[in-house]
Amino acid sequence: MKNKLPYTGINYYGFELTKADFIVRNERYKTETTKTSRMSVQFFFIKSGSGKIQINNQEYVLRKGSVLWLFSYHVYHFVEIYEEIQAITFELSLNVLMLSSLTTRSVEQHMNFFEYWDTPVLECEEADFSYVLTIFNHALKEYEQQERLYDVSLLADLYQVIVWFERTARHHWNREKPIREISSKILLYLHFHYREELLLNEIAAKFKSTPQTINRGLKKLTGKTFGENLIEVRINNALAMLKFEELDIAFIADFIGYRSVPSFNKQFKAMTGYSPTEMKQIRSSDKKINSFRFQNSLPFEIYTYINQHYSEPISLQTAAKYFYSSPTKIDQIVLDEFSMTFNALVEYNRMLFARSLLLSSSKKISDIAEACGYRSIRTFNRNFLTFWGNTPRKYKELLTMKKK
């Protein structure tokens, strides 16, 4: 009779999984925790209790039925515990996810989806709670008993969690599509009208929405409210205008919609870390400054990247490299969110800033073209004519005549 060989784990496509690749356990959280990140993939299922967790500087409310999917790039900690949290954690090495990617299309589809929407926390509907709890309880039992082929069983549990998470995320994505569309339109509207006195109630009426819906949609997509987004648009325009020494701080503040210079100075420093005067000195000495970015949604991080680098020779390829993605995916993300390609969105931002500089500065059109990222005055004139309906020179003449 042959000796029975010991079970050593899965070996598939060159990946060998061992006991160290799976950890499933019960956890309790009674107080806030310190920041941590792990070189692994983690699922949390909240069985009971409530509190708040901060993930990459974004706060999420946790309650019974919350499910978290955290990767190695997530830095997290519990910031508040309202009621003791009891959870089952399912921790996997990166090898497990790589193996899963080879053996199921669900993981690949999920990863593609989350390049569009990075939300690591989802809520179980009441009807799903028992189903998800059963999966996690089964994984916990398999891990504790570790009978033969337990790792195969744990992989099966993993697939079920991934499929549930991806389907639930898509459901939320589709359900909130109208809100996202309104939010995108409002953000673009701010770029045309930031000089005006924009009141949230009036904007809500204009877009046939409510202030609460607008703030919720913008907060979800950009991490900022309507008012905070308006400040960012104005400060970005101020940054563009500070390139021209002839424009003093008071003029810039008034031009971008501030009626108070101290208020402008305060918000400018809060956003950039410098006062407008300090920024003028930095710009004049060609020193680089740290950029500020949205922290929540990849489409709007791309939007902010364009917004802050439009004066440089950026391209779809440079953006893909910046976001560790492919040009095709970056273009598709922008197209899905803003209904225009990456290059069209770059052109859109350059034209808006060109208009601001044209109206506020007496600089030569060639200087404005260069400040907006154009290396050819002919290209700038042609694009300006296509976008605004007149050449830069004619556009300014017409506006000057209207003022008179």
TrEMBL record:
Q: What InterPro entries does this protein map onto? A: Homeodomain-like_sf, HTH-like, HTH_AraC, HTH_AraC-typ_CS
| Keyword set, alphabetical order | DNA-binding, Transcription, Transcription regulation
The UniProt record lists the HTH araC/xylS-type domain at: 184-282, 300-398
SMART domains xrefs:
HTH_ARAC (SM00342)
Which is one Pfam family of this protein?
HTH_18
What molecular function terms (GO) are annotated for this protein?
DNA-binding transcription factor activity; sequence-specific DNA binding
Tell me yes or no: is Heme among this UniProt entry's keywords.
Answer: no
Q: Which residue stretches, if any, does this entry annotate as coiled coil?
A: none
PANTHER family tied to this protein: ARAC-FAMILY TRANSCRIPTIONAL REGULATOR, HTH-TYPE TRANSCRIPTIONAL ACTIVATOR RHAS
Protein name (Swiss-Prot/TrEMBL): HTH araC/xylS-type domain-containing protein
Write down the species: Enterococcus caccae ATCC BAA-1240
Species classification: Bacteria, Bacillati, Bacillota, Bacilli, Lactobacillales
